[in-house]
Design brief:
disordered C terminus, Disease_R_plants, disordered N terminus, 17-stranded mixed sheet, alpha/beta, 41 helices
Length: 1308
């Protein structure tokens, strides 16, 4: 392809071309070529035609080159002149003293010639570097200009290639320059020629290294980046304080060392095999020295600079704050925090007392950063004090040595730390006067849901405290008082249970109930505050006396008038089974047919089909049925679904649509830019016949956000809108014909009610009349019918008449639905009410992972221990009870048929939100606008923040001092601008989920102060500090999106309460410390674990013996130990991993243990294997497991082309799943799989057929085949025919993407 002629080019192109040519001639010492290059790149961005060319990385690279160019040029000019002068004066003077007059001239001449030669050589070298950098940039612009001209005059098919070639070529040239010229000249440029008279030059150079760190050319370790930031902040702080340059010589020398190592580290290609030069080796040694904690000389240098800065006028601190130079102080404080964190991380172990002191120091330094962010609220005295405290804190931190941290602080350090922390608390208190604070000890709005259950949880905690062997010495003297409170509360608890129902009829009892609950909550609050170090013993003494008086009053009431009142509800049985959500469509067959017809017939143009109707009519259920219909799935190439709701964003809608289109987790898209998501959506829809369902539309805004992204290729694409507002569709399309979903008839309502209550058994004749009357009162709303069925299912049949009377008084509107829900809620046992209200903490229409929900319930104290069951089993019983009331819907099942995910109808969710607010159970902040936006009391127990961009966690600590639960999750998780190093959290938290707020690889130190924490969910961390042992009550630890396996410290064995250690998203696990396992205590309560381990270390067996209660284990091979390429798919007798010591193990997943055999426990129910590469002969070990119900064989778990099953294997197997195996022949007999219910075969492209004996399996319910051979699909069809001939009417067959056809066959 040729460059187009000038007749086809624009004026802009000619002007640019001429300017480049003239510039290239005249700019040998100018920086304008960099500015021109950046301007040209901006022009390309603004043009919009060159959008395939992602130029952001290139702009960052050119800015970086400009900084290097300026530094080399300035350093050369300034330093070379000084060098000649210094050599002339210094050497000449020494020579005159040592040599006589006769030899002086000769010596001077030799010195001058040698030094001048060296200087000239270095000047020439620097000039060459400057020229090459400059010439590189000019050539890049020329290349981009040519590429742009080609791009503009090329076909669409060639444009992408042209853009990508220009981009990759320019970046490759820059990378080559960095790896050669810049790297080779590191010592000459950045070490020998730093400018001591101009410290700002060093600051600018460090800034140039720090700013483009997101660029792929630049990679620095966190510790190196912290070093650079610390040096820069110290220099800037000294400049701001007016410190003389001569006092900064040592610091600048150290800065030069760090910069040299950083530049070398950035430019070093670790993949390139080369022999390092002598200079390289010296720099490597320097890098190793600098990356360790600073040596005493460096720390002394930092302290010297801080001391020099303190001698200046104190008022300059206040002046700096007023002149907005407080960013210098903020940067220094952030660097001190990083330094302190790295220092703590460098110590493998240290004393508990020192641990507490260091954490408090860390928190105190954070206070300084927060104070500076709020400088407009500070008085002059505080402003003036800040700089002094910054100096004192920095001096203290730099004075700490590793030995002091390990062995304990000297008394002088203790005193300084105590004084510093006291001043910081005073300053924070001054800031607190500007906020609507609630005193932690004052009356607060305690939750009113399941109040007796809350007292039970409190009493349980007091018993654990009394049994604790490691009670802090500071609270030993009040243990007797705590025991008295416990004894009195046990009595009050019994009395309150006795008056629970009668109190509604007596004002005196209701008043007593309220006072008793308030006293119990206050006692719990004060004891917990004492445990975190607050001094409130006097307040606890007053509350203890009050509880004693309440006990006396209770005795008087009991002796006088109290009698037990029978309960008005039937207890829910403990043995329950949850069914998958499959709404019964009664009377809506015509609606399904009509909507389906409108979707697949009619105009070829993009069309909008609205479904409208009041809440609870079943619009979403109808759309779901249509969406999954075989004819719809065959007709449309792609299908997507998103729930809009009242608060939506374009990013959220795009994520939902892409997830449904690709069947992927939302976390794959959450971090992506909105524009990238929009391009991705348009690309997948372009030239495809698509169906998109927009559920729960409230206004036209969501449509406006998406409309431009939806192509109309005249191929019959459709948009299905679901809304409760009938006139909304006319705003999208004036001539649209919305489908108005009708209510059920009375007969249809009665039919649906019977299905929900009696299934196929039918209604007893004695209940037919009252049952039909109840169905009539539901006014044709399916949701109401379902909710009423939930009420009747737990109500004695002789009390159905009362339910009918309660329903008959409610009118038909939203209020009717809410009052029906209120009735359902009131019929729940008390212990289920907080569990239901907790759903309000999730987003509307959010699909909730069941195990995560159960762990939250347990950590909150909602779940009471039951004999013979674990807490998780009891919690699951609670969930099933809510499912059976139809308040909660199961959206996904596990292979064992237990609920995997669940959801609420939007009206039920709305009810939960309102009820949670009414009962002070949960405070929802949809958009954080600062602390002054809160008009209500701030003594909330639980807070969920939906949009938290402007949130500062320290404001939460001030506004919600009694906060027990902080949840920041949802689609947008935690898009917060606040730096992780600056977070401060309410110290009484029990539950903390920080969503997807990333901390990099560092564990947030502030969390270690939360001694009451039971549930912790973080994102991205890869190591955990030994101070985690302070969280002695921690039960659940979840890490989302870990970058690598997470290293646990030795102290993890001392957290005896741990029961759930899990990673989410990605094949990562926890690496246990295995040193001194013999003396480490067992983790008796650990139930669920994602484990990463090196099987070669022989530590697996030792480790498993310390985990006697494990029920679910996901075990993966540690990445660093994998040598799969070198191992064969055979094993020796000693290469067996033994799991049969885990007598409680029910579910096991093994990943990456190639060449190993396994011994499994006989009680195993679910087994999943992947990447283990065992021969098929080894599967007999699995086939003999008597209790195995589910088997998943994924990703070369077994290798070989033939699987021959032995007679009698897999006697109880219900589910078998095969994924990405190279099997070709599979042989089985009629005695195998005698209980098989579900078979899934995916991406097994060599497999020719499934065993024909499956046609005789009487229990088979589903076969699903995807991306397999056509012959396999044909064998499935034969089995389907055999099953139908034998009378199996429930078998469902799904065949997808076998060869070029997509078939969905079902017989239900």
């Amino acid at each position: 392809m040729e460059i187009p002629s000038s007749s086809n080019t624009s004026f802009f192109e000619f002007a640019l071309h001429d300017y480049l040519r003239s510039h290239h001639i005249s700019s040998s010492t100018s920086t304008s070529c960099f500015d021109l290059a950046l301007d040209f790149l901006c022009k390309l961005e603004e043009s919009g035609d060159f959008w395939l060319f992602d130029i952001r990385d290139l702009k960052e690279s050119i800015r970086f080159l400009k900084t290097i160019f300026l530094y080399v040029k300035k350093c050369r000019r300034r330093r070379n002149c000084e060098a000649v002068l210094e050599h002339d004066q210094d050497d000449k003077g020494k020579t005159l003293l040592k040599q006589d007059q006769e030899d002086k001239g000769k010596a001077l001449l030799e010195h001058d010639q040698e030094d001048t030669g060296n200087i000239l050589s270095e000047r020439l070298s620097h000039s060459i570097i400057c020229f090459r950098i400059q010439d590189m940039v000019i050539n890049i612009v020329h290349d981009l200009e040519s590429a742009y001209l080609l791009y503009e005059h090329s076909d669409e098919s060639d444009r992408k290639r042209i853009a990508e070639s220009a981009m990759s070529g320019s970046l490759a040239n820059i990378w080559s320059l960095l790896r050669t010229n810049i790297k080779e000249s590191c010592t000459g440029i950045f070490f020998n020629y730093y400018p001591p008279e101009d410290p700002q030059l060093v600051v600018d150079l460090i800034a140039s290294l720090l700013e483009p760190l997101g660029h792929p050319l630049i990679e620095l370790e966190d510790t190196r980046r912290h070093e650079l930031q610390l040096v820069r902040s110290l220099i800037r702080f000294a400049i701001m304080r007016g410190v003389e340059c001569t006092q900064l010589t040592d610091l600048l020398t150290h800065a030069a060392d760090v910069v040299e190592c950083a530049i070398f580290e950035c430019c070093f290609d670790s993949d390139e095999e080369q022999v390092p030069s002598q200079t390289d080796s010296e720099i490597y040694e320097l890098m190793d020295e600098d990356i360790d904690p600073p040596d005493p000389q460096v720390r002394e240098t930092c302290m010297h600079v801080l001391t020099a800065s303190k001698k200046q006028s104190r008022s300059s601190y206040a002046l700096a704050v007023e002149q907005k130079e407080h960013r210098v102080l903020v940067e220094l404080i952030d660097s001190l925090l990083d330094y302190l964190t790295d220092l703590l991380g460098s110590c493998a172990s240290f004393q508990v007392l020192v641990k507490d002191q260091m954490l408090k120091l860390h928190q105190g330094v954070k206070y300084l950063s927060i104070l500076l962010e709020e400088e407009e609220k500070l008085g002059d005295e505080i402003k003036d004090l800040i700089g002094v405290v910054v100096h004192d804190a920095g001096t203290l931190i730099f004075s700490l040595s590793v030995n002091e941290i390990k062995e304990g602080f000297p008394k002088e350090t203790d005193l300084v730390l105590f004084h510093l922390y006291k001043v910081l608390k005073y300053m924070m208190a001054e800031l607190g006067h500007n906020y609507p604070l609630a005193s932690p000890h004052s009356l607060f709005n305690y939750p009113r849901s399941n109040e007796l259950g809350c007292i039970d949880f409190f009493l349980k905690n007091l018993k654990e405290l009394a049994r604790c062997d490691e009670v802090d010495d500071s609270i030993v003297f009040i243990l007797n008082r705590i025991q008295m409170v416990q004894d009195d509360l046990v009595f009050l608890r019994s009395f309150l249970e006795n008056i629970k129902e009668q109190r509604y009829h007596t004002e005196k009892l209701q008043a007593f109930w309220s006072r008793a609950m308030e006293a119990a909550y206050k006692a719990e609050l004060l004891i917990d505050l004492i445990l975190v170090g607050d001094k409130c013993e006097d307040s606890l003494y007053a509350v203890a006396r009050h509880i004693k008086l309440l006990k006396t009053e209770a005795l008087e009431i009991y002796n006088g008038q109290t009698r037990t009142v029978n309960k008005t509800f039937i207890h829910i049985p403990s043995q329950l089974a949850a069914a998958i959500h499959n709404e019964d469509l009664v009377g809506l067959d015509d609606a399904v047919e009509t909507i389906t017809h409108r979707l697949i017939r009619g105009s070829k143009q993009l069309d909008i089909i609205p479904i409208v109707g009041m809440p609870g009519l079943g619009k979403t259920t109808l759309a779901n049925k249509v969406y999954a219909a075989p004819s719809v799935r065959l007709h449309f190439h792609v299908r997507g679904w998103c729930s809009v709701s009242q608060t939506c964003s374009k990013h959220s809608l795009l994520v939902q649509l892409l997830c449904s289109l690709y069947s992927k987790s939302p976390h794959e898209y959450l971090k992506k830019d909105e524009n990238d998501l929009a391009k991705k959506l348009r690309q997948v829809l372009l030239r495809s016949r698509y169906l998109l369902i927009l559920d729960d539309l409230w206004d036209i805004e969501a449509w406006n956000l998406l409309e431009k992204l939806l192509p109309n290729d005249a191929n019959g694409s459709r948009i299905l809108l679901i809304s409760r507002f009938q006139n909304l569709s006319s705003q999208f399309k004036p001539d649209s014909n919305p489908y108005h979903l009708r209510p059920l008839t009375d007969e249809e309502s009665w039919t649906l009610l019977q299905k929900k209550l009696f299934d196929k058994e039918g209604c007893p004749p004695t209940l037919s009349e009252v049952g039909f009357q109840i169905a009539k009162t539901c006014r044709g709303l399916p949701l109401t019918v379902v909710l009423v069925a939930g009420i009747l299912a737990t109500t004695a049949q002789d009390r159905w008449e009362e339910v009918a009377k309660s329903l008959s008084s409610i009118v038909l509107d939203n209020e009717y639905c809410m009052k029906t829900l209120e009735l359902s809620y009131s019929h729940l046992p008390d212990y289920l009410k907080p569990c239901l209200l907790y759903f309000g903490a999730f987003r509307e229409d959010e699909v909730i992972h069941v195990r995560r929900l159960l762990r939250l319930w347990i950590s909150e104290g909602f779940v009471q221990q039951a004999e013979g069951k674990s807490l998780e089993e009891v919690a699951y019983d609670y969930l099933v009870a809510l499912i059976n009331t139809s308040l909660v819907v199961v959206t996904d099942q596990r292979t064992t048929r237990s609920a995997k995910a669940c959801q609420l109808h939007d009206l039920v969710h709305e009810f939960c939100v309102e009820k949670a607010k009414e009962e002070s159970f949960l405070h929802i902040i949809r958009c954080w606008k600062g602390p002054f936006c809160l008009a209500e009391p701030s003594s909330h127990h639980r807070v969920w923040i939906q949009s938290s961009w402007e949130l500062k966690t320290w404001e939460l600590m001030l506004i919600f001092p009694n906060l027990r639960c902080l949840l920041l999750f949802g689609y947008h998780a935690f898009d917060c601008e606040e730096k992780p190093s600056r977070i401060l959290l309410p110290k009484l938290l029990r539950v903390l989920d920080l969503g997807d707020w990333g901390f990099g690889e560092s564990f947030p130190m502030e969390v270690l102060l939360l001694v009451h924490l039971r549930y912790l969910a973080l994102c991205g961390i890869t190591s955990i500090p030994s101070a985690i042992v302070k969280l002695s009550r921690l039960e659940t630890l979840i890490v989302k999106h870990p970058e690598s396996n997470i290293v646990l410290p030795n102290t993890i064995w001392d957290i005896r309460t741990l029961s759930y250690l899990r990673t989410i998203y990605g094949k990562r696990g926890f690496i246990f410390a295995v040193g001194n396992l013999e003396v480490s205590p067992d983790l008796d309560h650990l139930d669920t674990l994602n484990l990463a381990i090196d099987p070669l270390s022989q530590n697996l067996q030792k480790l498993l013996t310390k985990l006697p209660s494990i029920r679910r284990l996901k075990c993966m091979r540690d990445d660093e130990s994998r040598d799969d390429e070198s191992r064969e798919a055979t094993r020796n007798c000693d290469e067996i991993l033994v799991f049969d010591c885990l007598t409680q193990l029910e579910s096991l997943q093994l990943i990456g243990f190639r060449g190993y055999g396994f011994n499994f426990p006989l009680n195993l129910k679910k087994l999943s294997l992947s990447e283990n590469c065992q021969p098929w002969s080894e599967i007999s070990t699995i086939g003999k497991l008597p209790n195995l119900i589910v088997l998943k064989l994924h990703d070369s778990s077994f290798i070989g082309e033939e699987w021959v099953m032995k007679e009698g294997e897999f006697p109880n197997l219900r589910v078998l799943e095969l994924l990405r195996l190279d099997i070709r022949n599979w042989t089985a007999s009629s005695d195998d799989f005698c209980h098989l219910e579900k078979l899934v075969v995916r991406h097994c492209k060599k497999l020719e057929e499934v065993p024909a004996c499956l046609g005789e399996c009487p229990t088979l319910e589903m076969i699903q085949v995807e991306n397999c051979s056509e012959s396999l699909a044909n064998s499935i069809k034969q089995i389907q025919q055999e099953q139908m001939d034998s009378g199996n009417e429930v078998l469902k067959i799904i065949i997808e993407n076998c060869c070029d056809d997509t078939l969905i066959l079902s017989k239900e």
